[in-house]
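Human: Respectfully, please carefully check these tokens:
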Amino acid sequence: MNQDYEFRFVRNGVALRATIDACSWIWWARLDTPNFRFDTFGYSEAHARQLLREGWARHAKQTGATDPWSAVKGDVQVTRAALGGCLRDGEAI
């Protein structure tokens, strides 16, 4: 039996709500740099990439990193994963 889960959150001052079922997918975006690893989890591939881009902007502001997003976005890896599932080396098992 699938169970629905409801999430409520605020993003940029806007209240959002999402409902997912136990068989829903999440999207994991990952960026490895020589000094840091960045991970985000979104409800779509585009959402995960956008969260990573926003995180990169915060990182640059905090650290003074000078590489623009355009210099690193090609290195982003995105994986679709089932909620409640397991990945081994980025592959579902």
